[in-house]
Amino acid sequence: MAPNDDQATAPAVGTAMAAILAAGIGAFAMGLFVILNEAGVFAAPSLYGPSGGVSGRTTFAAIAWLIAWVVLHNRWKGQQVESGRVFALTLVLVGLGVLFCLPPLWGLL
Amino acid sequence: MNTLLFSSESIWTMLHGLVLGGGAMLALAAALFAMRAMPATPAMDAPDARARVQSRYLTGLLVAIAVLLWLTVIGGTYIVFPPYRATPPEGLTDLSQYPRAFLLSSPGTAWLHRFGMEVKEHVPWIAAMLSTAVAFVGMQYRTTLLSDSRLRRMSSTMLAICFALVAGVALLGVFINKVAPLE
Q1: What is the pLDDT of residues A53-109, one digit of tens each?
Q2: Of B77, B114, B126, the CB nearest to A103
Q3: I need a labelling partner for B173 at 20 to 30 A (CA). Which of A101, A107, B41, B140 fits?
Q4: Is B123 at the interface with chain A, CB within 8 A?
């Protein structure tokens, strides 16, 4: 897609959008690990006994976030990306991540 | 005679909730206000000294938010949460030293664990990730964060989401600590 005049003069936001979308992926990963655990599909192992399973779920989500960030950063660094679409996707991912962390939803599983 | 006014668990809880979490909320409110109130240098103009100074302050604030939130969630998960979830010895009737067991022992307070603490275990990590992304954008783009309307709008939205998540979780923390404090 050819950039329009605004995009041609605007600063490249690829680096920013990589960080923002990665945060959305991390949020979704957090919700996913929680809901998979509650559904009995996958339980992240406890990495610190006194904290229990939350130590595994949060660490796994943080790792997913960092991996997504590195991959997206290398792909989009210095480039112009469609910030509106990427940000909308980020908001959806964050919304789902938060939703999956809410116990009333687990009762529906 | 025990002359300590607060136990170490109580001090850690205050550090976690009031100092770090409360500090993050204050900084989030300040950053949201700054993003709204700070004038933007037109994108085509070279940033002047004032623009550089205000972006430096704003970036410092954004980094402080991320650092405070990460310290809050890591301290919460690895220092405050273990004594909260400790299992009481068999047959113990006074559960006041075991907050999770105490909350679950009564139908009137069980929701504080089953909803409140379950949310507190995970949602703040999402806020920490979002705030880190905004801090990174601030560090990477400096004056452009304020002059580019897209970056400014997206960063403000992310900060507002962070604030809502942290405020909600903080409120749940107050409820839990009011009913079943770590002592």
Answers
A1: 999 999 999 999 999 999 999 999 999 999 999 999 999 999 999 999 999 999 898
A2: B114
A3: A107
A4: yes
What is the value of ipTM here, to two decimals?
Answer: 0.93
Alpha-carbon distances of A53 from A50, B8, B15, B38, B112, rounded to whole Å: 9, 24, 24, 43, 19
Judge whether A47 is closer than 8 Å to chain B, CB to CB.
Answer: no
- Write down the domain spans for chain B: 8-39+48-86+94-179
Nearest to A23 among B115, B133, B148 (CB): B133
Contact of B12 with chain A, judged by CB distance below 8 Å, is answered with no
Global pTM value = 0.94
SS (H, E, C) chain B: CCCCCCCHHHHHHHHHHHHHHHHHHHHHHHHHHHHHHCCCCCCCCCCCHHHHHHHHHHHHHHHHHHHHHHHHHHHHHHHHHHHHHCCCCCCCCCCCCCHHHHHHCCCCCHHHHHHHHHHHHHHHHHHHHHHHHHHHHHHHHCCHHHHCHHHHHHHHHHHHHHHHHHHHHHHHHHHHHHHCCCC
Nearest neighbour of B125 by CB, restricted to A19, A58, A104: A58
Look at B73 and A50 and tell me if their CB atoms are within 8 Å. Answer: no
